[in-house]
Amino acid sequence: MVKIENIELGEFPLLLAPMEDVSDPPFRAVCKEGGADLMYTEFISSEGLIRHAAKSTAKLDIFEYERPIGIQLFGGNVDSMREAAEIASAANPNLIDINYGCPVKAVACKGAGAALLQDIPKMVRMTEEVVKATHLPVTVKTRLGWDEKTKNIEEVAERLQDIGIKALSIHGRTRVQMYKGSADWTLIGKVKNNPRIKIPIFGNGDIDSPQKALEYKNRYGVDGIMIGRASIGYPWIFNEIKHFIRHGEVPPPPDMAERVRATRKHFDFSIRWKGDKLGVLEMRRHYSNYFKGTPDFKPFRTRLVEAPTEKEVHEILDEIVDVYSTIVV
Predict the structure, then answer these.
(1) Is 31 a catalytic residue?
(2) Residue 318: inside a domain, yes or no?
(3) pTM of this prediction?
């Protein structure tokens, strides 16, 4: 049984990676149903949170069915991160996660996210203050290092464990790599197999099939796997991996009725959480992913993206089920 302090996650937990503009409550709802064992909010700016910015505060919304769930914070100022941890703890998640992995310029150029990989002493100070500021378990998500010459994840893991984090998720790329090339899990495996490391180590990067998940589980010995991009439009990946690990076979892919049902669940939650107008608009980015690989789907996609109302979207989804009822994609 893998545990983060007193949070039981199962024998080999599958985590939903926090993804900006993706991992909101509607998306998390379908991923939880799809088998995710632990999920995180989109990352939340510590500066926005302490200033009560509407966008940051809205990301604190969590729901009972999502548990266990973590609120992820990022920032470049130690005092702001400590204060943000206090605010986030009051929202009653199961844990607080710190983002030391985001590679985008808008974050890293402000000294936050993966930028902290260039200043390990500051990373340690910041983490220690967050640990002190909350009664909840604190976890960290990070990368191998800043670039090929500074892959310092082994040192980072030991130092962060020593000041109190309860789990570590490692993306197998450097900041300079962004999301290009292939993730290198070699150092993730070294961290996991370091006899000094006692906390759970979760691997992240390029897991896009049940076969690869089992291969990496066996090869690197990680306690669990964090999945990001492969879950977008395909929340079934979590249960497919679990089924493959247990039974050695991949279950049949979702048919069109199931794809539409999941899309509709996601869409309905978006409407409830964001309101009619924003719910319709922000759902448009997801249709291509839910129906990826469907033959001759472009006309339907165009209509879904252009549909201005909730009613019209539902009518188009009904039509999709009728047209593709005999096709498995």
Answers:
(1) no
(2) yes
(3) 0.94
